[in-house]
Structures are given as structure tokens and as C-alpha cells.
# Entry
Amino acid sequence: MKSTSPGNFPAALQARATRVSYEAGATIFRRGSPTHSVFFVEAGAVRLVRYGRAGEEVVLHHASPGEFIAEASLDSARYHCDAMAHEPSQLLQVPSAALKELLDTDRDFARQWVGILARQLRSVRGRVERLSLKSARDRVTHLLVSEGRGPKCELVLESTLKDLARNLGLTHEVLYRTLAAMEREGLIERGRGVLSLGPGHMI
# Structure
């Protein structure tokens, strides 16, 4: 299971959170069921899904470590979608009532929560834009430019390349070939768990 640093989880919520584990394929909550909690993905991965008229599965979001899920249902009586563990996952579960109480009584936490939601929104918008690009190379470059740090747009990979491929909307075979070709051409550089732009991008 890939995991995230506990530092990504607000300190004000730690005393109110319960750590829960789910096996791959397990249901965390169902669409239409009463809203009771917000969850933080500590390790593993969670899919938020709905179903079409013919029963086909539509993935709304693939949540990775460091992300909250069900925050959009905080002001709703019922969940808007199904949440399922994509792989063995460890979550921090926070009762909705406790989170609402903190938002009402702790101004510092309320500001922190707004920042968390803003970062998640920016991340989702970036993914949508990235998935609209047709070329695998363009998706890799977009990822580095939009989420990398420093002059070389360095990106620390907190998950496997298979997970990265899924987030880019690619098969892992296509991603492997694309990264290898871009590295040969000097368009990217690959280190131990790090991707960055290469000198070829400056030509």
C-alpha cells in the first residue's frame, strides 16, 4: 500500500479521527445512504463511482493518499456516489458532526479547511485538463509543469508507475514506453522516485 505523511492530515482532526481499513473491492459508503463521515485516504486508493442506465460504472474520481473524500457531501443529508476501495486501503474516518463543529468554533481550522479544499479543487482541475490532451507525452509534460517544483519541475512519485499511468489515463505499458522514449531524447530525467524536465525541453 502506498501511504502519505500524517502531516498532511490537520492536527485539529486527529483526536476526532478513527483509523479504518478496507480490503480491495470493499464498499466504504453507498450513494443515497445517510452522510455520517468524511474520510482521508492515508494509504491505498479509493474510487468514487456512479452507474449509468445500463449499469456501466462511471469513475468520478480516483482518490490517492493525502486526499479527503466525501467532503462534497458534508452539507448534504446523503452521499452523492459510491466509494469503493480500489486496493487494500487505510483511511482516517472523521464524523461529519465533529468536522462541522470544528468549522463553527475553530477559526484557524476553518481557514485551513478552505485551503485544503482549494488545493484539491486545483488538483482536480489540473487532472481534467491533462486528460483532455491526446498525446501521452503531452500528459507527462503537463503533469511535470503543473505539479512539479523548481526550475526543472521536479515531481516526487509517491506511488507506483502503474498508479501514475492510471491517473494519466494511460495503460502502464504506454506510460513505460513514453517515459523511456522521452528520457532517451532528453525531454525528461528520471531519478530514484523522481521525474523532472530534461534539457531537451529547453531546446
